[in-house]
Amino acid sequence: MPASTSSSGPAPGTTQRPSSDPRPAIDVHDLDKTYPGDIHALRGLTFTVAPGTVFALLGPNGAGKSTTVKVLTTLSRADSGTATVAGCDVVRDPIGVRRRIGVVGQRAAVDLEATGTENLRLQGELYGLRRNALRQRVTELLDRFGLTDAAGRVTRTYSGGMQRRLDVAMGLVHRPEVLFLDEPTTGLDPESRAGMWDEIGRLAGDEGLTVLLTTHYLEEADRLAGHVAIVDQGRIVAEGTPDALKADLRGDAIHVELAGSTASVAVDDVTAALAGIEPAVRELVVSGRSIRARVDSGAAALPSVLAALERSGLTVATATLARPSLDDVYLRHTGRALHDSSPDASGPSREEVAA
Amino acid sequence: MTAVLTNSGQLATRRVRAFLRQPWFIAVTLVQPMIWLLLFGQLFKGITTMPGFPDVTYIAFLTPGVVVMTAMFSNGWSGMSVITDLDRGVMDRFLVTPVRRGSLIAGDLAYQGLTTVLQTIIVLAIGWIAGARFPGGPASLLALTVAVVLLGTAFAALSNAIALTVRQEESVIGVNQFMVLPLAFLSSTLLPLSLAPTWIQHIARWNPVNWAVEVGRQSIVASPDWSGIGLRLLGLAAVALLTAWWSTRAFRSYQRSV
Questions:
Q1: Structural domains of chain B, count
Q2: B193-206: string of b/e by CB count within 10 Å (b at 16+)?
């Protein structure tokens, strides 16, 4: 589906790859992988990434995101299924894949005993860059990532943010067709994260690069990706543009807190009060004194919801109306809230996959 | 093929640069040979009076053996830097570039070979100061250097293979603990084999460590046995190639486990 992202087509006369390229940048079909100890990391994972787009795999730790990146970057092999990256099969032509991809892993994988320049140079040399072309590219990347002043220092002396920027620069040194960013902002402070987001946005815009991003931050996927796939327990449970995914939820979320002294209100009272109002409310959940529901047109529905509650003698303390977020999408497709699956929480359904 | 060699050189340069930033590190690896030469060598000085001991001083006899032991120990630690690279993610980064696995191993082994040469020169110099003489001449010392580089390569390759397979520092420490001294004792490193029990003599015949020591011993006699040297160097080269191939294969076991 090469034309699935609408808004960011390349302007005529730019150096971007033509978006009419029919070949998907990444084509993944039915990948399965089990780790020793019966950890089923991937279960029939299937997705396609159009060239020149930013695609996010969104899911908690253990969902299979990193395993997917390892298989697609030829570091690891799937038990079954097929995958091509930049037109090369990951099993039959791993060298072809490696020439065309850039990989930025979860941690800044820089050589701490080497300087910034030495790290970048070696990386370029391994892709066959030589002499002037290499020197120019290294200078250009050091400048672009704000590392020119620190270029001659060993990276042991760099801050975490600087190491991360060098790491991304190293992933770009050979101008890859497809860039893999495995949780690029995990562990960064908010300021560095914002900087990284700007940089990723620029990458996609300026270089017409295809980016596959994994993240467990909804905000990150929403902000950066033209296309989001939600991964849960090794398979894709929902996929589309962030807006399309949110639109799927059909409607806005209404959240009402009732006034009063009792700890909770009777569910039946609320259901009765809201029965028959137009437009109808759906997915009504009452817990304690708080009511959550979904309606097609929130702005139009809110006054009638409030009026209906008042008529039944239920006094409203606060009422909020929210456009659906990817958080809601995630909750609906997996039955869990994404932030419950953070690395520290150990929910019952969380799987640990060996790194 | 050219790319494989070029990349090996570039990867070896990375290690050399790191070494040049901390050159004092080589002093640490020389503490043990000093102890062997200057303390052990003095302690066993009188052993030359035993019947069957060749007509040389003990320090001259011991120096080639200590050169070999030093090469075994320092190359045996090679896997430690592999583990550091694995832990930092640097190895994974290399593995997703087009660089061949063979280059990753060869670059490392080339750097190890350079440090082995450097250590050999220093240990020979210490031996010389302590009184050892090498009437076999420069060619025999060159043969000794080639022999210990080949033996060291085998130890470094083994250490790297184990590091890639087990991925724990303890396993690399284990290689050193369980291999270096036993293999040295099952050879003529410290004593002539004519003084050893028959079973040790039998094992020593097939012990590559002993081949390297025997090549080295030719430097302390006036007329080296060149055909014996050639044969043993061939044997050592075969062992070095075999272990290097094995450590390249170890990337597959690593790849299966990630």
A1: 1
A2: beebeeebeeebee
Helix (H, G, I), strand (E, B) or coil at A321: strand
Does domain A26-246 sit in CATH 3.40.50.300? yes
Q: Tell me the per-residue pLDDT of B33-62, one tens digit each, with 9 for 90 and over.
A: 999 999 999 999 999 998 889 889 999 999
Does residue B20 lie within any of the structural domains?
no
Instruction: Please answer whether residues B145 and B120 qualify as being in contact, where contact means their C-beta atoms are separated by less than 8 angstroms.
Output: yes
* Tokens 């090369």 belong to residue: A88
Question: What part of B 91-120 touches A (C-beta under 8 Å)?
Answer: 92-99
Query: How many Å apart are CA B106 and CA B122, to the nearest integer?
Result: 24
Chain A closest-CA separation from residue B31 CA (Å): 24
3-state helix, strand, coil in chain B (%, to 5): 80, 0, 20
Class of domain A250-323: alpha beta
H-assigned helices in A174-227? 190-207, 218-224
Outline where chain A has alpha helix (H): 65-72, 94-100, 116-126, 131-144, 160-172, 190-207, 218-224, 242-247, 267-274, 298-311, 326-334
Instruction: Assess if residue B70 is contained within a domain.
Output: yes
Give the pLDDT confidence of B110-141 residue by residue, as tens digits.
999 999 999 999 999 999 999 999 999 999 99
What per-residue string of b and e applies to A61-76 under the rule 16 or more CB within 10 Å gives b?
bbbbbbbbbbbbbbbb
- 10 Å CB burial of residue B169 (0-12, 13-18, 19+) is middle
Quick one: tokens of B238?
A: 């075969």
The Cα A105–Cα A148 span in angstroms is 23
Under 8 Å between Cβ of A181 and A211: yes
Q: State the count of interchain CB pairs (< 8 A) between A and B.
A: 74
Closest B-chain CA to A122: B10
Q: What is the DSSP letter of B48?
A: G
Q: Which helix (H) or strand (E) holds B158?
A: helix B138-166
Whether the model pTM is above 0.90: no
